């Protein structure tokens, strides 16, 4: 996969927006893929793709970790030259298919939320980032909810583009289909997020005991603010093959740019289409 060119990053299509990168000139991204539950086969593809997007465009440098040691504002070097970075070094945090209760102390949790809420740093949640930290209420508040089963498992998901002006989804048509696993969120409400993509409620099978949402409102991607920080989440990206899809690559590429403050996009909530 790493040898494959990113179709959307041809010389004619490289970003033209004014760059407002941090003073150090290039953004620094921390990608975390710690799993304490289900471990997705797509994690290597996810991490490699995000690394390569930053490497090829020179928009960000990526640190890849499968542990949570760097999620802290404490000095990790403690007088020794260990070259360990903490959250003060990074501009955005990506949870790549994290699952279960991550190895985070109360101090680390506080530092992570301060990183987003107070420092105005970005957060991107990829797929199973919603299946994480159920015992940490502020995490659910920050990302927008938690996983509550995937009623149709991996299927040809009929998707509606609810906000074609948003940079991470403007390349999608108004309606389209993606073969992926769509999570059903709980403790989630569309009046607290800007729904970007959602399942078409008229094209779903509700004769399914795993369907828990009586409103039949299944968001596929959303944007929101958490304090000063920008937050993006999407359930797309479950399969390794999905990371070879230029549409999925471009969505996460633009999402990372957006949480870094390189582009503009709404976080205002809106009603369901046709309702």
């Amino acid at each position: 996969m790493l040898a494959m060119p990113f179709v959307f990053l041809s010389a004619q299509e490289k970003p033209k927006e004014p760059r407002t990168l941090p003073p150090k000139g290039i953004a620094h991204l921390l990608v975390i893929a710690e799993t304490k539950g289900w471990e997705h086969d797509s994690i290597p593809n996810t991490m490699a793709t995000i690394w390569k997007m930053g490497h090829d465009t020179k928009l960000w440098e990526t640190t890849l970790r499968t542990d949570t040691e760097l999620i802290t504002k404490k000095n990790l070097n403690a007088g020794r030259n260990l070259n360990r970075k903490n959250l003060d070094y990074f501009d955005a945090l990506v949870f790549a298919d994290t699952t279960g209760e991550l190895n985070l102390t109360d101090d680390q949790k506080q530092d992570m939320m301060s990183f987003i809420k107070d420092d105005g740093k970005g957060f991107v949640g990829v797929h199973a980032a919603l299946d994480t930290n159920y015992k940490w209420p502020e995490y659910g508040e920050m990302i927008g909810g938690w996983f509550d089963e995937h009623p149709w498992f991996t299927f040809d998901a009929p998707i509606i583009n609810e906000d074609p002006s948003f940079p991470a989804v403007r390349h999608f048509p108004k309606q389209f289909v993606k073969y992926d696993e769509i999570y059903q969120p709980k403790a989630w409400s569309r009046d607290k997020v800007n729904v970007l993509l959602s399942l078409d409620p008229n094209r779903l099978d509700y004769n399914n005991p795993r369907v828990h949402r009586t409103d039949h409102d299944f968001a596929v991607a959303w944007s929101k603010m958490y304090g000063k920080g920008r937050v993006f989440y999407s359930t797309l990206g479950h399969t390794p093959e999905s990371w070879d899809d230029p549409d999925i690559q471009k969505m996460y590429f633009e999402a990372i740019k957006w949480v870094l403050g390189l582009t503009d996009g709404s976080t205002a909530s809106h009603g369901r289409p046709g309702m």
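The chain has one domain: 7-13+27-259. The two ends are 42 Å apart (CA to CA).
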